[in-house]
TrEMBL record:
Protein name: HAD-IB family phosphatase
Signal sequence bounds: none
InterPro entries: HAD-like_SerB, HAD-like_sf, HAD_sf
Top-level division of the source organism's lineage: Bacteria
Keywords assigned: Hydrolase, Magnesium, Membrane, Metal-binding, Transmembrane, Transmembrane helix
Similarity remark: Belongs to the HAD-like hydrolase superfamily. SerB family.
Organism: Nonomuraea salmonea
């Protein structure tokens, strides 16, 4: 059972520990790896891309791309492809060293380290293993296999991250939260020490306005 007095440090994954959108890049690989699937995906993109650009229909677009990418791919094959992709995706040029170093410093200090990400399992777990992050907890979007394809069964974006942390027994306020995005404002608000990783000026301004204070920043360069 976790120590209720143990400090908790929460990290986003994409843009915080590894560069790029892990799940989007993985889906693109799945969509383009077979010619017939690639053709159908490109035709479907005419409808799905505009839906993705609108916040209220984005989930439908993601569901559509996920179905196209995984139809006919059984769970064991999906997991094997995720492991294979993660090794390349988390290779040295894509790793964000400054945040990985900070994560390991929290581990050495005895903190409970949790990665909370909108990336879906099993890919999120595979990326963390490829990054060499032993001993960390991973909370990610959960997929389920249904009707010969995968679908999102439980999300992990925005306020869902705080809810999923509470389900894991982490009651706000948490000690530290690291993210690169204003999408994680609910998580950053729940932290005593919010930290932005390589934020754009616009992101930093939005977070500052929402928090009422200037958060700490870890620069990428």
């Amino acid at each position: 059972m976790p120590d209720p007095y143990q400090r908790v440090a929460v990290f986003d994954l994409d843009g915080t520990l590894v560069r790029g959108d892990s799940f989007a890049r993985f889906l693109r690989l799945l969509l383009l790896r077979r010619p017939i699937r690639a053709v159908i995906s490109l035709l479907s993109a005419i409808i799905l891309v505009p839906l993705f650009l609108i916040s209220r229909t984005r989930r439908r677009a993601v569901a559509g791309f996920l179905w196209l990418a995984t139809i006919g791919v059984p769970p064991h094959r999906f997991e094997a492809l995720a492991e294979e992709f993660a090794l390349a995706h988390a290779a040295e040029p894509r790793r964000i060293a400054i945040t990985l170093d900070r994560l390991r410093s929290h581990q050495r200090a005895g903190d409970r380290v949790i990665i909370v990400t909108g990336c879906a399992d099993p890919l999120a777990g595979a990326v963390c293993r490829a990054l060499g992050l032993a001993g960390v907890e991973v909370i990610a979007a959960r997929l389920e296999h249904s009707r010969r394809a995968h679908r999102v069964a439980e999300g992990c974006l925005g306020a869902d991250k705080v809810r999923r942390l509470e389900q894991a027994g982490v009651v706000p306020p948490i000690e530290y939260a690291y993210s690169d995005s204003a999408v994680d404002l609910p998580l950053l608000r729940a932290a005593k020490h919010p930290v932005l990783v390589g934020p754009s000026p616009r992101t930093r301004q939005r977070v500052r306005a929402a928090l009422g204070t200037d958060p700490a920043v870890l620069p990428l360069d």
